[in-house]
Specification:
single chain; alpha+beta; Immunoglobulin-like; 10-stranded mixed β-sheet; 6-stranded antiparallel β-sheet; 3 helices; membrane; signal; transmembrane helix; Ig_V-set; Siglec15 protein
Length: 341
């Protein structure tokens, strides 16, 4: 009986010395991952939220607090944050605290956007990330190191997931040639949540049709095949935070052959050259006449004459210069493509 009681007592002792991983909630109801390694002579724990969300261009706070087995520790310590994976991921922030001090001197801050908010001496490693971009999305892991043996350090194993949200933005829209002189349009947009893409234009009867897109992370690309009619084609990207659109224009020359179309373009360029020569000749004649008049009349002070006109004064209110369309020869059909956002 006595041996049985001793065996039960040892079993209870082993259970108290085991490892424990517990998930709790903070005061706001957000999930907290609490990682604990406990033993009578060593107790470490870290508390981080499961996820933090913020919009692109704004700032986000990554909370992290910890406990350690020492009743009081006043020696040197280091606070570290990693990205991607624990223990091996690249460091994005690191600062050190000297013995007897509460000031953590920053030694590393990725692109200068990571800033310590907490006080490591008071068990708080929280940081703030400025000027968020979609590429900042991912997991981050906090770590603390005390000066001493290898056991005086601890790192979050699960980390906190940073989710960066953004309204849609169209980053590319273009028209590409295909076989048999058929053209197709491509539209690429980014955003979080990933946006849905839709097209409108003459080939759709001036209606709108949602197109299945190929997603690559936070970027989505959708194709509008077989542009059978000339005109304006518009791509619209939308998610829960907003929408964006951009347009491309398709105009094709239908000539008898590529040679005749080329001759037409060369003729237009020749006409422009002749007009330019005429303008230059007229200016030269005017200069000679002005020189003769200057010789026949006594000199007098006058404002210097300019050969250039003040376009801002000559242009009527609300008048805008015409857009220049880029021209490109593509086989027997020659589209003029103009991008507009």
């Amino acid at each position: 009986m006595e041996r049985s009681i001793q065996l039960l007592a040892c079993l209870a002792c082993v259970l108290q010395m085991g490892s424990l991983v517990r998930t709790t909630r903070d005061a706001l109801g957000d999930l907290l991952d609490t990682e604990v390694h406990s033993a009578p002579e060593q107790r470490w724990s870290m508390q981080v939220p499961a996820e933090v969300s913020a919009e692109a261009g704004e700032a986000a706070m990554l909370p992290c607090t910890f406990t350690h087995p020492h009743r009081h520790y006043d020696g040197p310590l280091t606070a570290i944050w990693r990205a991607g994976e624990p223990y091996a991921g690249p460091q994005v922030f690191r600062c050190t605290v000297a013995r007897g001090s509460e000031l953590c001197q920053t030694a590393l801050s990725l692109q200068g956007r990571f800033r310590l908010l907490g006080n490591p001496r008071r068990n708080d490693l929280s940081v703030r990330v400025e000027r968020l971009a979609l590429a900042d999305s991912g997991r981050y892991f906090c770590r603390v190191e005390f000066a001493g043996d290898a056991h005086d350090r601890y790192e979050s194993r699960h980390g906190v997931r940073l989710r960066v949200t953004a309204a849609p933005r169209i980053i590319n829209i273009s028209v590409l040639p295909g076989p048999a002189h058929v053209f197709r349009a491509l539209c690429t947009a980014e955003g979080e949540p990933p946006p849905t893409l839709s097209w409108s234009g003459p080939a759709l009867g001036n209606g709108t049709a949602a197109m299945p897109g190929q997603a690559h992370g936070y970027q989505v690309t959708a194709e509008l095949p077989a542009l059978t009619r000339d005109g304006r084609y518009t791509c619209t990207a939308a998610n829960s935070l907003g929408h964006a659109e951009a347009s491309v224009y398709l105009f094709r020359f239908h000539g008898a052959s590529g040679t005749s179309t080329l001759a037409l373009l060369l003729g237009a360029l020749g006409l422009k050259a002749l007009l330019l020569l005429g303008v230059m000749g007229a200016r030269a004649t005017r200069r000679r006449l002005d020189h003769l008049v200057t010789q026949d009349t006594p000199p007098r002070s006058q404002a210097q004459e300019s050969n250039y006109e003040n376009l801002n004064q000559m242009r009527p209110p609300g008048h805008q210069l015409p857009r220049v369309y880029s021209e490109e020869l593509l086989g027997h059909h020659h589209p003029i493509v103009h991008h507009e956002k």
